[in-house]
Write a structure and sequence with these properties.
This protein is α/β, with parallel strands linked by helices and 511 residues long.
């Protein structure tokens, strides 16, 4: 295995509430950054990187090999030693392209959680792009320039257009330095023909996005990733560019690679051994990008996804959670009755407060209270498609939409809740949910179902029934005197709900 690189020796971290950690389980390498918050600014105190090469460990069936699996877990055990004293809320760990696609990703994530001591969240390509831009933007001086940010990963490449800290366009493509190297340069052999074929394929993948990116426009192009940094260093040291990365400089590098016949045979100043296995694939992607987008020069950023994770985590803790913005946007897009949604959310919050200690509704890595609130606010989005099967439409939209800030596991939780908001109860929707949350899903579902039933009349009044729980699954719902008599539809709905709840082990009494 490639030796790990670190800016400091691996020692137990000092317990400190101002420390934050971000871990990026990439397709080529695993990265970790530890930073300290000082007056709203982040100061890096440690970094650690290991070339795990998960993507290279995928077999033909899309399964992580035993070797890649074990090396990934061993790496996370070392990461875990560094972060064991950092507050859990200050630690974020995410998996990207390979863990999105590996057929045994679920098994890997179970063991990874034990090794690291924290859950690993799988993020979609669009969310990966958003976090990359956030990280890069925080490493740049304040400017009115429109930026194109590009990041080459092991299995995907992201393109983002943005201004200051806000992005206006996110694109994730299925090409990465590992995947392109594996597909076009078998056994590391490099020829003019297979290099041209690789560049052509990358141009073909990028072409559907070319028009949108060009129309958005940019004043400066910035590259963020180990591959782009490596190419930038090589071009500069070998005097193939005066400043930044240029197309002509990369063509000179490609000539040297073709002349050498393989990256292993290449003797070139600035080329690190850890980059040799994937350099040619990354170079093909970068050359294709310069041609398709007509880029003259690209600057290199030292920040990337992991820095974006740190700043995003800090924002969540300071009530600047982008997920709230995403939920608001989805409500507006699907023309949700927000007053009704808020009424359901208020009642669900009241029921949660009365039950969360009894049912132990807590899970590391997941804010279940907020997820329940967002499920309430999104439970009717499917009505805009059709009232018939609206809960199924709602679940599909939540699961499939790119909602900034949400990882795949959080969207699965939301989707499962909204599909079970009423009617037949489906335990099948819980199958892919994280094991730390799965046993709690029936309880969260009950709270949502009761809140939805209570507000079916859409009168928006504040309703705070008393919820008493006896022996875990015996529920007593107490309303103010005569309230149920004055709301006969609600009484009928709750009596109907009692029959549904009985089928999955709960007994409901109305008082």
């Amino acid at each position: 295995m490639t030796e790990p690189t670190s800016s400091a020796s691996i020692e137990p971290a000092i317990s400190n509430a101002d420390l934050f950690a971000a871990i990026d389980l990439g397709s080529n390498s695993f990265h970790m950054i530890i930073a300290r918050e000082t007056h709203g600014q982040m100061h890096v105190v440690d970094k650690h990187k290991e070339m795990v090469r998960l993507r290279a460990g995928l077999d033909k069936s899309g399964k992580l090999s035993n070797k890649a699996f074990k090396e990934g877990i061993a790496c996370l055990e070392r990461f875990g030693q560094l972060i064991k004293d950092i507050p859990a809320a200050n630690v974020r760990a995410v998996g990207t392209n390979t863990l999105r696609n590996a057929s045994n990703s679920r098994e890997f994530l179970k063991q990874a959680k034990l090794a690291l001591g924290h859950s690993i969240q799988i993020i979609a390509g669009q969310e990966e792009a958003r976090l990359i831009y956030l990280g890069v933007a925080h490493g740049l001086p304040s400017s009115d320039e429109q930026r194109l940010v590009m990041d080459i990963g092991g299995g995907s490449t992201e393109y983002i257009i943005g201004h200051q800290f806000e992005n206006s366009h996110l694109t994730s493509t299925e090409m990465g330095c590992v995947s392109i190297t594996q597909s076009y340069f078998p056994k590391g052999k490099i020829t003019q023909e297979n290099f041209n074929n690789a560049v052509s394929k990358c141009r073909q993948i990028l072409r559907p996005h070319r028009s949108t990116l060009r129309k958005k426009g940019w004043d400066i192009a910035i590259g963020a990733s180990g591959t782009i940094k490596s190419i930038g260093v090589i071009l500069e040291i070998n005097s193939w560019t005066e400043s930044g990365i240029t197309l002509q400089g990369m063509i000179e590098l490609s000539k040297e690679l073709i002349k050498a016949g393989s990256a292993d045979n290449l003797k070139l100043a600035g080329l690190k051994d850890e980059r040799r296995p994937v350099l040619v694939g990354g170079l093909a992607i970068l050359i294709a990008t310069f041609i398709e987008l007509n880029i003259e020069q690209m600057q290199v950023s030292s920040n990337a996804l992991r820095e974006g994770l740190v700043f995003d985590t800090l924002g969540r803790l300071n009530a600047e959670d982008v997920r709230e913005t995403s939920v608001n946007a989805m409500q507006q897009w699907m023309k949700v009755d927000t007053e009704q949604a808020d009424a359901v959310a208020r009642t669900a919050k009241s029921l949660y407060k009365q039950s969360h200690n009894t049912w132990n509704l807590h899970s590391d890595g997941y804010d279940l209270k907020r997820l329940l609130k967002w499920a309430c606010r999104l439970h009717e989005i499917g009505i805009s498609i059709s009232f018939k099967r609206s809960r199924h439409h709602s679940a599909y939209l939540v699961a499939q939409a790119d909602m900034a800030g949400f990882n795949q596991q959080e969207k699965q939780i939301l989707s499962s809740l909204v599909v079970n908001q009423r009617g037949k109860y489906s335990e099948e929707s819980f199958e892919e949910i994280d094991d730390s949350v799965k046993p709690l899903m029936p309880y969260l579902t009950v709270l949502l179902r009761l809140a939805v039933r209570i507000h079916r009349g859409r009168d928006l009044e504040q309703v705070d029934p008393i919820l008493r729980i006896i022996n875990d699954k015996e529920l007593h719902l107490e309303f103010d005197d005569k309230w149920l008599d004055e709301h006969p539809l609600t009484r009928l709905d709750l009596e109907t709900e009692a029959k549904h709840l009985d089928k999955f082990g709960f007994t409901l009494f109305l008082e």
